[in-house]
Design brief:
- The protein has helices at residues 2-5, 10-27, 37-54, 58-63, 65-94, 103-114, 118-128, 132-144, 146-161, 167-199, 209-226, 231-249, 252-283, 290-315, 325-333, 339-346, 356-385, 397-417, 422-441, 451-469, 482-488, 504-522, 539-560, 573-582, 629-634, 660-670; strands spanning 599-601, 615-618, 637-640.
- It is mainly alpha-helical.
- It has a domain at 35-269 and 286-386: Na+/H+ antiporter like fold (Up-down Bundle), CATH 1.20.1530.
- The radius of gyration is 43 Å and the shape is elongated.
Length: 689
């Protein structure tokens, strides 16, 4: 019935089914079964936690780990002591019916009822599709507060049997929190590494690969519970640690088996838990006390709201993405209680806690209120407040490249600033994982495969599977390689890729774009490292020389602007020899030829090591000496000029030809004036020359 399931969460419907089944069993005169704590903790809870831990979205979880830990540890401690203290006050003030309940019993009750339940949160939040940040904050809190709940529960249970509680007992109880939480994580990491190492050698027995994942995960949970450590923390740690290495080693069929079996197993457990919760409500012994039950419900809500408001005010001082008022409301409203609280209450011993039935009645009331009232109204409230929903988008190679690029960029910024933050330690861990851990836990060439390539193979496989399932294997696009198709369906022969036909114009346009862009990519500057930069002793002198040269060029341009007649075009050496041969008298050296300037040619910058040596070019006989036969044959003589030292400037360093008269002669040569036109009929080269 879609209209009902869209309004009422599945968990509420299952509890109603349990109540009907329990009432039916009781109506026929039989005793309904009760959800025993051993069955719940040993068989029903582990599949749900393993499914949550194995498929945990690791990136948002680690980025918000500080916020999650504050809500899970400080928030749960606040709820337990606030609720326990106020309930003790209510018991003392309410009269003879409740005043026999001591402080330790109320604190124990507060520790049981204060923890947010992961099963209830998963059941409700999966249906409303809340955004990833809020989902991971509430769900992460429900997973990690198990350590606090376990410590407080066993602590107050032990203290109840003591005649006197000393300061040393309280200090040891505080230290036991770190032992329980960190010990559970350590047990989970050990079993996760063992599972990953085992999967390295299962290439010839693919059938039992999924078995190792379930076996080692369950062993981690049992080992933690055996030593009164946090079994939930152990399961989460085992799932998170083993997943990347196991998935690299096992076959695709084993990966599919693990995924769907875990989903099915956790769904069955969740269904049984809520049905048994309804049956146990009918079958159990209840003691109703209006004052105690209503006070418990009211103080639970008040403690949750106050805790979220105060902790969020503190957390927002350190967060970049602040938690808004809408986010705080959803976090406070999403603190659902569930079967863990009921099972812990069911475990209480009648000898030390004679009020056990009243505690169970109050716990069931709180569970029903949070699951039915809050669970049913949270979806309309999310729509009313316009809280951001989860966007179902497929990850792409482009997104993965930019994500890795931003990670490297932020790590580099942290290194430059000298601030060793989240990205710095994440980069260190990734380098250690790539250098040592992958080589030990991943078999074959996959251990050396870059993360981007592995992600591409995963996407390619997923796309190929969707293609096969949709029946479109006859129209394989070029993005899907035939290797992936062979892995999925080895019986079918790989089909050839369909290459689209391009027109000549389109092909030429693509070639032009590629040619232009590929040429641009080659024009790169030499990379440098800020730690290896060495000061150049000639750098300052070169800079001064360049400035002087620039000023000289600007001055020359200004001087040329005053010339009224354009300068005579310089002939090539061939034309010069032709003119000299045709009219030698016009090119005879004059009396003041000694003062003619030397024309210097500077074909390249002086600081370039490949630059051509500076040359001096003179016409024949301009030095005042009679021309030798060799010079007569050669025409123009190129004389080598001494290169300047790095600290000097050949523009402003005075030389032999830099006198004022030489400068005036240079001006006259650049402006020779009008020349007589040759008469008509006169040959360019006279006869006999």
């Amino acid at each position: 019935i879609p209209s009902v399931s869209s309004i009422v969460p599945e968990s509420c419907l299952l509890i109603v089914v349990g109540l009907l089944v329990g009432g039916l069993i009781k109506g026929v005169g039989e005793k309904p079964p009760v959800l025993k704590s051993d069955i719940f903790f040993l068989f029903l809870l582990p599949p749900i936690i393993l499914d949550a831990g194995y498929f945990l979205p690791l990136r948002p979880f680690t980025e918000n780990l500080g916020t999650i830990l504050i809500f899970a540890v400080v928030g749960t401690l606040w709820n337990a002591f606030f609720l326990g203290g106020l309930m003790y006050a209510v018991c003392q003030l309410s009269g003879p019916g409740l005043n026999h309940i001591g402080l330790l019993a109320n604190l124990l009750f507060g520790s049981i009822i204060s923890a947010v339940d992961p099963v209830a949160v998963l059941a409700v939040f999966e249906e409303i599709h809340i955004n990833e940040l809020l989902h991971i904050l509430v769900f992460g809190e429900s997973l990690l507060n198990d350590a606090v709940t376990v410590v407080l529960y066993h602590l107050f249970e032990e203290f109840a049997s003591f005649e006197q509680v000393t300061i040393l007992d309280i200090i040891l109880g505080f230290l036991s929190f770190f032992v329980v939480s960190l010990g559970g994580v350590l047990v989970g990491v050990i079993y996760g590494v063992i599972a990953a190492f085992t999967s390295r050698f299962t290439s010839h027995i693919r059938v039992i690969e999924p078995l190792f994942v379930f076996l080692y995960s369950y062993m981690a949970y049992l080992s933690a519970e055996l030593f009164h450590l946090s079994g939930i923390m152990a399961l989460i740690a085992a799932g998170v640690v083993m997943r990347p290495y196991v998935e690299a080693n096992i076959s695709h069929k084993s990966h599919t088996t693990i995924k769907y079996f875990l989903k099915m197993w956790s769904s069955v457990s969740e269904t049984l838990i809520f049905i048994f919760l309804g049956v146990s409500t009918v079958a159990g012994h209840h003691y109703w006390n209006w004052t105690f039950v209503i006070s418990t419900l009211f103080f639970c809500l008040i403690a949750r709201v106050l805790g979220v408001l105060v902790l969020t005010w503190f957390i927002n001082k350190f967060r970049i993405v602040k938690l808004t008022a809408k986010d705080q409301f959803i976090i406070a409203y999403g603190g659902l209680r569930g079967a863990i609280a009921f099972s812990l209450g069911y475990l209480l011993d009648y000898e030390h806690f004679s009020m056990r039935d009243m505690f169970l009645t109050a716990i069931i009331t709180v569970i029903f209120f949070t699951v039915f009232v809050q669970g049913m109204t949270i979806r309309p409230l999310v729509d009313l407040l316009a809280v951001k929903k989860k966007q179902e988008t497929k990850r792409s190679i482009n997104e993965e490249i930019h994500t890795q690029f931003l990670d490297h960029l932020l790590t580099g910024i942290e290194d430059i600033c000298g601030h060793y933050g989240h990205h710095h330690w994440k980069d260190k861990l990734n380098r250690f994982n790539k250098k040592y851990v992958k080589k030990c836990l991943i078999a074959g060439e996959r251990s050396k495969e870059p993360q981007l390539i592995a992600f591409y193979h995963k996407m390619e496989m997923k796309q190929a599977i969707e293609l096969v399932e949709s029946g479109g294997i006859g129209k394989i696009p070029s993005a899907v390689s035939t290797v992936s198709i062979q892995n999925i369906n080895p019986q079918t022969l790989p089909l050839e890729r369909v290459i689209p036909a391009l027109s000549k114009d389109k092909e030429e346009e693509i070639r032009k774009i590629l040619r232009t862009n590929l040429q641009k990519t080659r024009q790169r500057l030499r990379s440098y490292n800020r730690h290896t930069l060495v000061a150049d002793p000639y750098e300052e002198a070169w800079n001064q020389m360049l400035l002087r040269r620039q000023k000289a060029r600007q001055l020359e341009q200004k001087m040329n602007n005053y010339l009224t007649v354009p300068a005579h075009r310089v002939d090539s050496p061939t034309m010069s020899r032709a003119r000299i041969g045709s009219d030698p008298l016009a090119y005879e050296p004059k009396e003041d030829s000694e003062n003619l300037p030397i024309i210097t040619i500077d074909p390249a910058s002086p600081q370039s090591p490949e630059s051509v040596d500076l040359m001096s070019e003179e016409p024949k006989g301009c030095s005042g000496l009679p021309p030798s036969p060799e010079e007569d044959e050669e025409g123009l003589v190129m004389r080598v000029k001494e290169p300047s030292s790095p600290g000097t400037d050949d523009v402003f360093t005075p030389g032999a030809s830099d006198s004022p008269s030489s400068q005036r002669m240079l001006r006259c040569l650049s402006d020779p004036g009008p020349r007589p036109e040759p008469e008509e009929g006169e040959p360019f080269i006279p006869k006999g020359q």
